[in-house]
Amino acid sequence: MPSPIITSRTNGTRQQLAIAPPADGLALTGRIRIPGDKSISHRALMLGAIAQGETTISGLLLGEDPRSTAACFRALGATISELNETQVTVQGIGLGNLAEPTDVLDAGNSGTTMRLMLGILASHRDRLFTVTGDSSLRSRPMGRVINPLRQMGAQIWGRQNDTLAPLAVRGSQLTPMTYRSPIASAQVKSCILLAGLMAEGATTVIEPSLSRDHSERMLAAFGAEVIVDPETVSATVVGPAKLTGRPVIVPGDISSAAFWLVAAAIVPGSDLVVENVGINPTRTGILDALALMGADITLENERDAAGEPVADIRARYGPLTGCELSGDLIPRAIDEIPILAVAAAAATGKTTIRDAAELRVKESDRLAVTASELARLGVAIAELPDGLEITGGQPLVGAAVDSHTDHRIAMALAIAALTAQGCTTIDRAEAAAISYPSFIETLSDLCQG
Ligand code: S3P
After folding, report:
1. pTM
2. Are 72 and 141 in a shared domain?
3. Hey, which residues are catalytic here?
4. Do 300 and 272 share a structural domain?
5. Are 121 and 96 part of one and the same domain?
6. Is 346 near ligand 1, meaning CB less than 6 Å away?
């Protein structure tokens, strides 16, 4: 929707977004809804495909990443109806029954698609699979899943000493194992647990701190035997598992809600309710971080949606103060660091983010890119080896910035632009469609009041 504040120019697939907030202020008010959770959407499509019988999914995210997952599993033989938010139907073909595809599987920009799918493919005996992705995904580390899968007996090869895609997988009978992961990564954990579904016995992943647990929840809901031990931060599946298709309700994505929560917290006069947000405790690091900064955020109407907790979240403008973000909080806010850096830029004093080196291997090097692009807007920000240091409270000035084709960077910069003086242009803003295709529309709507 056109708005005097937001204008967009496209050149082929490249979108340049211009944001010029009015000098007399802009308050974000009302109630909005956000699209479905990306992590849960991927898992619903994958488990639906390998389960026996029908899975129905309501609230699926229609972003490019879940579309990559759907395309891969269609190529592997599952029947998946046209994707829509109301109801997607997946006819599962049963564990071990995926077909050898006639072409390369393309995971696009999606690390979750590639890593989780590898765990499933590795256990499909006597079939050959080749897997690739876009240039960003082809530069992201795959050794973190290839090495443990090989310890289970998997046969996988890739570029640069079997660390980078494109990858080739020859499915084989896997043996269960206990894997002590050096990183808190839900993609690594989920990959190993999915590989364990067809191994005979208990496959366990122990994490240094707890990453998102959607796989454990959904595997249990589909009928697998799953044992979770919070004390040892471990998750176990017992194979061979039997998965049965079922209805899945996908809640709104807290990682998408995060942009609006921060926007409301930093744009004077704002009072916004984001409805139907998943508040799984392994994902609520953003709420804890904003609470540490003194943000006025409250949960309303807390409820359960098919095994995942959900609430409406109200965020109001108010003064923020800098804080320290590190340790166990980081995996619980792993995708929210760029937007938290925007909140920190508006906060009085210093914010230090540590223990976040994982951000260097996301869709972009998010520490380097967050620092360089926010600096263009006048933010006092320094890159640390494993984090960021931001001295907030200085006025932001509109400038030309670039998403580096990273969806979360594009959206974080758009929110920062709302508090800048003058016009900000965000190049390659189309990246937002990876996880939030309607982001710019919602932004324009909110800016129109
Ligand atoms: C995801 C896990 C996270 C997150 C990604 C989605 C998932 O990565 O960054 O956007 O769906 O499992 P790691 O937990 O591997 O760091």
Report:
1. 0.98
2. yes
3. 335
4. yes
5. yes
6. no
